[in-house]
Automatic annotation (TrEMBL):
GO terms for molecular function: ATP binding; kinase activity; phosphotransferase activity, alcohol group as acceptor. This is Anhydro-N-acetylmuramic acid kinase. Pathway: Cell wall biogenesis; peptidoglycan recycling; Amino-sugar metabolism; 1,6-anhydro-N-acetylmuramate degradation. It comes from Paramagnetospirillum magnetotacticum MS-1. The lineage of its organism: Bacteria, Pseudomonadati, Pseudomonadota, Alphaproteobacteria, Rhodospirillales. Keywords: ATP-binding, Carbohydrate metabolism, Kinase, Nucleotide-binding, Transferase. It catalyses: 1,6-anhydro-N-acetyl-beta-muramate + ATP + H2O = N-acetyl-D-muramate 6-phosphate + ADP + H(+).
Length: 355
């Protein structure tokens, strides 16, 4: 089936869209993919409702209509007939994630999107898992496993978006997945405050700074790092501690130290793996930051490469995953497992909306 995936990630950079041909078990082929960036106003509107506060309904409607436009433009640009697309997997945007309280909230009106684009939509991928006692995240591991089927394990696939998450895949395809800690969100917010741009582009700011090693050590005392995986976090979980630790740093030293926080938390994550990996494949925007990639390489004991090394597209991977998960949802296949979200038994998930 031809399936579209739509992802609005925690880094708040925009909507990722991708087309894949899949049966929900394997991927027959990858179609085109794109990222449509948010304007500063859209980013701000989303930031203002993080935590579930403020004008959620209005922002959700605008957000859904923006996704509809993204889909229409994408299909038009690539000459794809909507009637040929079987389903659109619509992640929405996480505005609250508190699995311990059995709450996770992704905004996005599935029924409205389906009627706007004339394609069946699957959304609300995380609720069933959280209701069953799981973390509701990460969800991409089943897609990682499908992609990695022919690669030699054990290997780790690390996604560095706003938050970091890793999928460990053994030689026989068994999984362990969890959020490692911060991805780029701390660095993005620091860069915004000090440079007016929400990204430390190519790690330039970090490259000019010095890492405060004492701060990195203190950062790793956050209680999240004591928890056994599977585990997941909300975007802003580490902000209070991080800001306390880099208080008084120059823009450059702060950026270098925040980059080191992410790399150190990934290195710590490797200690939770059942067996060491042969390689690390990095996806998500963090792989574009050379300072982040060098810090990872220094801290990890296996080679670190972007996923492009094995022919995948690290900008499209999450959107592709939600296309894949939507097809799995329609087919009644499992989306989450005890090893990926800590849920007590494998779970289906997603909610279907017909146009
Ligand atoms: N050239 C670059 N230099 C440095 N950082 C970059 C560059 N390009 C992208 N990034 C980082 O990647 C981030 C976007 O990554 P990505 O799109 O994978 O996140 P996301 O999907 O929104 O998040 P999540 O995976 O947590 O849901 C940006 O916010 C920025 O921090
Ligand atoms: C609750 C939530 O939206 N979590 C995101 C976030 O961004 C990265 C990491 O934290 C991951 O757990 C998840 O996204 C990916 C797509 C996932 O579920 O696999």
């Amino acid at each position: 089936m031809l399936a579209l995936g739509l992802m609005s990630g925690t880094s708040l950079d925009g909507v990722d869209i991708a087309l894949v041909d899949t049966d929900g078990e394997t991927v027959a082929s990858f179609g085109p993919a794109a990222t449509v960036p948010y304007s500063a106003e859209q980013r701000l509107a989303l930031m203002e409702i993080l935590g579930g506060k403020g004008a959620v309904e209005q922002v959700e409607r605008d957000f859904t209509l923006f996704h509809a436009q993204v889909v229409r433009d994408f299909l038009a640009e690539h000459g794809i007939d909507a009637a040929k697309v079987g389903v659109a997997g619509f992640h929405g945007h996480t505005i609250l994630h508190a699995p311990a309280e059995r709450r996770t909230w992704q905004i996005g009106d599935g029924a409205l999107l389906a009627s706007e684009i004339g394609i069946a939509v699957v959304n609300d991928f995380r609720s069933a898992d959280v209701a069953a006692g799981g973390q509701g995240a990460p969800l991409v591991p089943v897609y990682h496993r499908a992609l990695a089927a022919r690669l030699e394990g054990p290997l780790a696939i690390l996604n560095l978006g706003g938050v970091g998450n890793v999928t460990w895949i053994s030689e026989d395809g068994s999984l362990l997945a969890f959020d490692t800690g911060p991805g780029n969100a701390l660095l993005d917010d620091w860069a915004m405050a000090h440079t007016g741009r929400p990204v430390d582009v190519d790690g330039a700011l970090s490259a000019a700074g010095r890492v405060r090693r004492d701060a990195v050590e203190a950062f790793l005392h956050h209680t999240y790092f004591d928890r056994q995986p599977p585990k997941s976090v909300d975007r802003d979980e580490f902000h209070a501690l991080a800001w306390e630790l880099v208080k008084g740093c120059s823009a450059e030293d702060g950026a270098a130290t925040l980059t080191a926080f992410t790399a150190a938390s990934v290195a710590l994550a490797a200690y939770s793996f059942p067996r060491p990996v042969k390689r690390w494949l990095v996806t998500g925007g963090g792989r574009r930051n050379p300072e982040m990639m060098s810090a990872l390489s220094r801290g990890l004991s296996a080679p670190v490469e972007p996923v492009e090394a094995v022919g995948w597209n690290g900008d499209a991977l999450e959107a592709q995953a939600f296309a894949f998960l939507a097809v799995r949802s329609l087919a009644g296949l499992m989306l989450t497992y005890p090893e990926t979200t800590g849920v007590s038994s494998p779970q289906t998930g997603g909610r279907r909306h017909v146009p």
